[in-house]
Design goal:
The protein is an alpha+beta fold and 463 residues long. It folds into three domains: 12-124, Trigger factor ribosome-binding domain (Alpha-Beta Plaits), CATH 3.30.70; 134-157 and 271-462, Trigger factor, domain 2; 164-268, Chitinase A, domain 3 (Roll). The chain has 13 helices and 13 strands. The chain has helices spanning 31-48, 61-91, 148-161, 222-226, 272-278, 284-318, 329-345, 350-361, 365-385, 391-405, 409-419, 422-439, 449-462; strands at residues 12-19, 22-29, 101-102, 117-124, 138-143, 164-168, 177-186, 194-202, 212-214, 217-219, 234-240, 254-268, 443-448. The strands form four sheets. Strands 6, 7, 8, 11 and 12 form a five-stranded antiparallel beta sheet that branches. A four-stranded antiparallel beta sheet has the order 1-2-4-3. A hairpin with a 7-residue loop joins strand 7 and strand 8. Helix 1 crosses helix 2. The chain is globular and about 90 Å long. The termini are far apart. The relative contact order is 0.11.
Length: 463
């Protein structure tokens, strides 16, 4: 029953700011425009209408109006609202980040012949801000020489990654992996908040200082809860939802997880010679050279990432604006998913990525808001620099992610598309290109990797 018209809609538009990044759009379509659109919709329907006892297009107008008049009114109302809203967005150069919603829950008025059609909606819009001079930015470039010790450590890591799992009953030791049923309850909510029969957990390594992640949440002293336990045991751990968590109902709430362990395994590391054979390399010596080359590539990538992170920190610090009053879970989740794609694209193992995301979820509300603030900054700067993402760049990033996870590029693309994550991958590439544009204008100085790590650790303690 859709209708169309080539004449632009006449509509009175009033836009006011009701809160930071929140716009109220009042729209009024004059009665003459309403009547014209209704007449067009009815005439279009009449031309094709087929009613019993009448030839196509010959049914009496009164009969048609009686039978389908309500449907025509509702469809025309929807078309007018959509067209009026789109015109307001275009004419006032708005950048919506939310769907339009009725003001204060008001009902949308009915459409009627001979009467103006007035309605109002509210939306959140992307913040506006002044773009700073990037020549004042200062960036440190961490430098590191890959040594035999680094190669030994990487080979050890891969020996466990590709090691042989053996089913065990316990008692559990560090790095043992287990599956079990996890049941989550949240303070102030009745019953079970979430449960799953396939929750993966790993006993934290000694260097993790007891912390580990379960269901994407960092748990303090997880090692104490797990070590010495066995298959069939049930543990209960608690934590407090971070103020910056993407789910509002978990922020600041006590979260309890009951974990019933159903199976477990311990990894026996694969020998260096076997690793070399697995990679199709003739000798361990050649394998070590390949590992060194890979580490140098990773170092270069981490070096660039460190420089980009400094740019991000300075952008958040130097650019001031108020965030939208209603920060949706979807927006916060989107920034987390983008962080996941960025970490995966740097060659970080999926398990380590999930640990890092759990740490991010547990960060302060300020950190969460800074991440969201950066999201808006990067989107605006991409427009400012005219950054575009080519299909070749996208394919290259997907191919790299695939190589890091040991799958084919087409499989990786299918996984991303199925999960609806291609947008986050594109955002990662976009943000990297924006940061590189700024780095090219900034003052860059070298710093030894050890000194850089000390600075990072000191900053982590302050935050």
């Amino acid at each position: 029953m859709a209708t169309a018209t080539e004449t632009p809609l006449e509509v009175a538009i009033t836009v006011t700011e009701t809160a930071p990044c929140t716009k109220r759009i009042a729209l009024k379509v004059p009665a003459a425009e309403v009547d014209a659109r209704l007449e067009l919709a009815l005439s279009t329907f009449l031309a094709d209408a087929a009613f019993p006892g009448f030839r196509k297009g010959k049914a009496p107008r009164a009969l048609v109006e009686k039978r389908v008049g309500g449907s025509i009114l509702n469809e025309t109302r929807g078309q007018l609202m959509s067209e009026a809203y789109s015109k307001a967005v275009e004419e006032h150069k708005l950048r919506p980040i939310s769907d339009p919603r009725p003001v204060d829950g008001d009902a949308i008025p009915e459409l009627a012949r001979g009467k103006d059609f007035s309605f109002a909606v509210e939306i959140e819009v992307a913040p506006d801000f002044e773009i700073p001079e990037f020549t004042g930015f200062e960036v440190k470039k961490p430098t590191l020489e890959v040594t035999a010790e680094h190669v030994d450590g990487e080979i050890l890591r891969q020996s466990y990654r590709f090691g042989t799992p053996t089913r065990i009953d316990g008692p559990f030791e560090r790095l043992d992996r287990m599956l079990g049923k996890a049941t989550v309850t949240v303070e102030g909510r009745e019953g079970t908040y979430f449960d799953t029969d396939k929750a993966l957990c790993v006993v934290p390594a000694e260097e993790d200082e007891g912390k580990g992640q379960l269901l994407g949440i960092i748990i303090e002293d997880l090692d104490k809860a797990l070590m010495g336990k066995k298959v069939g045991d049930t543990i209960t751990v608690t934590t407090t939802g971070a103020e910056g968590h993407e789910r509002e109902e978990l922020r600041g709430k006590k979260i309890s997880i009951q974990y019933a362990i159903s199976e477990a395994e311990r990894i026996a590391p694969r020998a260096g010679k076997e690793l070399a054979e697995m990679y199709g390399v003739e000798s361990e010596e050649i394998f070590r050279e390949q590992v060194k080359d890979a580490l140098e590539q990773r170092r270069d990538g981490e070096q660039r990432s460190a420089m980009r992170e400094q740019i991000s920190e300075q952008l958040v610090e130097k650019i001031e604006f108020a965030l939208p009053a209603k920060i949706s879970e979807e927006q916060i989740s989107r920034t987390l998913e983008q962080q996941r794609m960025e970490l995966l694209s740097r060659g970080i193992e999926p398990a380590a990525v999930e640990n890092r995301l759990a740490e991010i979820r547990g960060s302060s509300e300020k950190v969460a808001k800074d991440r969201l603030k950066l999201f808006f900054i990067m989107a605006r700067l991409a427009q400012h620099f005219g950054v575009n993402i080519t299909e070749q760049e996208l394919n290259g990033r997907i191919a790299f992610m695939a190589s890091q996870q040991g799958v084919r590029p087409e499989q990786m693309r299918q996984q991303l598309e199925k999960a609806g994550r291609m947008g986050e991958v594109i955002s990662v590439i976009r943000d990297a290109k924006v940061s590189d544009r700024i780095i090219s204008q900034a003052k860059v100085s070298d710093i030894a990797a050890d000194e850089w790590n000390k600075l990072v650790e000191a900053k982590a303690k302050r935050s």
